[in-house]
Amino acid sequence: MEPLGTVTILMIICISCLVFLAVRSRTPENAKQLPPGPPPLPIVGNALQLKTNNLAQVLQEFGEKYGSVFTMYFGTERVVVLHGYDAVKEALIDRGDEFAARGHLPLADDVNKGLGIIFSNGEMWKQLRRFALTTLRNFGMGKKSIEERIQEEAQFLLEKFQDTQEKPLDPTYLLSCALSNVICAIVFGKRYDYNDKKFLSMMSLMNENFQVLSSSWGQLYNLFPSLMKCIPGPHHKVLKNNLAAREFVLEEVEEHKPTLDPSSPRDFIDCFLMKMDQEKGNSASHFTIENLAISTVDLFVAGTETTSTTLRYGFMVLLKYPEIQDKVHEEIDRVIGRSRSPCMADRGEMPYTDAVIHEIQRFISLIPLSVPHAVLKDTPFRQYVIPKGTTIYPILTSVLHDSKEFPNPKEFDPGHFLHKDGTFRKSDYFMPFSAGKRICVGEGLARMEIFLFLTTILQNFTLKSIIDPKDIDLTPVLSSIGNCPRPYQLCIVPR
C-alpha cells in the first residue's frame, strides 16, 4: 500500500481539527467545571494514552496524577473516572440514586439494545431487577435449597476431577459447566450433562465473549464504535455469540410453555412467562419475550463466567502458593473432616479459608473498572459539576488495591483479612461485586458457590502445578472490562 501523501495527511489533520472545534462549540457551559484530566486529542481523545492490554493500570496512574475524580475522553465520549475508596463510596453508596444509571459501553449496548437486567435503565431496569431478585430468592438464593443444589453439583465436579487420573488438564470448562449448572437449575429448572454438546457450545460462546470484551478488539470497539463496525475482527463474534445464546434460551422457553403450571412455577422462565401473561393487556409492559431472552442470558452469563473465572484464577493462586493451600487443607480437615460435605455454616468456623477466598477476589479484581455508571442530570460532585449523560467509571481496583487498607496490595496475602489473633477481619473496601444500587444481583449466590466449591474440591484433592510454582505468572493476560487469567494446566491429585 502506498504511504499517505503530504496533502492527504494535512487534509486529515484539518478535518480532525474542524470536527474537534465543532464538538467543542457544542460543549455545555458546565463542562468548564469538569474535573481535571489529561488533555485529549481531536477525535481520538485520550485513546493513544491507554494501554489496550492493561486499561486499569493506566487509569490508576492517572488517578495518582489528577486525583480521585478526573475526566478522560474515550474517543469522542467524555467519561469521568472515580479513583479510590472515598470517591467510589460517595458516588455509589452515599449518593447511589444519582449514580444508579448504566453508562455507555458501546459493544454491550449494540448487543443488548438497552434491554435486560444489566444494561437497561430507568423504570425497565427497576422492574426487571426487582423481579429477578424476588425470583432468585424464591428459588433459594441465600437459602438452604440452593446450598444443597451447589453441594450436589460439587459432587458431579469431583467425579469429573477423579476421572482425570491425575493427568494435566485445563480446568476452564469443567468449572464453567459446574457453576453454570447451578444457575441453570434456577433459570431453566434443570442441569445439563457435562458432555451435552449444546451446553458445551454455550460455555464456549460465553468464555469467548468474556475474552473478546477484555481484549484490545473489545476496547477499540468501545472507543471507536462507528469505525470498528466497519473493520473485520473477533469483536463481531460478540453479537453473533449472544444471538446464539438467546436462541438457546428461546428453545428452552418453547419447551416450557406447554407444561407451565401457574400454581407451581418451576424456574425463572416459568415466572417470567406468568408475568408476561399478567401484563399482556399493558402495551407499555417491560415483560416481553425480548426482555425474557436477554435477562435470562444476563443471569446465565453472570452466574457462569465471573464465578468460574474467579475459581479458575483462585486455583492458579493456590498453585503458586502451595503453603497457603496446605493451611486451607489443615483447616478443612480440622473443622469439616472427610466424612461430610462442607456447608455454609462451616464458614464462620474457618477464618483462614474465608480470608483466602476474600483475598483471591481482592487480588484478582476480576471486574477492575466495574460496569460503567452514568448521571442523568447535571450533578455537582465535590467541587465539580458532572454534565448530564456523562459515563462514570468507578475503578474497583483502586479500592481493592488501596495500600492504606491493604499493605502491599499487589502481593497475595490472606493476612489482609485476618486480625492478629487469627479471626476474620471484615473490610468496607471489599467491593468485588461493585456497590450500591447496581451491585451484582447474584452476589449472595456467588459467595456461596465460591466457598462451597473451593472447600469441597480441597477437601478431596490437592492442586499440583506442572511447572515450578515460582514460574507461575499471576498477572492477567488481558485486563480491561475483566481480568483474564493466563491459560494453564494443573494436576488434581486425590488426598
UniProtKB/TrEMBL annotation:
Keyword entries, A-Z: Endoplasmic reticulum, Heme, Iron, Membrane, Metal-binding, Microsome, Monooxygenase, Oxidoreductase, Transmembrane, Transmembrane helix
Organism of origin: Podarcis muralis
Membrane topology summary: Peripheral membrane protein
Cellular component GO terms, alphabetical: endoplasmic reticulum membrane
Entry protein name: unspecific monooxygenase
Similarity remark: Belongs to the cytochrome P450 family.
PROSITE patterns: CYTOCHROME_P450
Main location: endoplasmic reticulum
Subcellular location field: Endoplasmic reticulum membrane; Microsome membrane
GO-annotated biological processes: epoxygenase P450 pathway; xenobiotic metabolic process
Entry binding sites for heme: 440
Top enzyme category: oxidoreductase
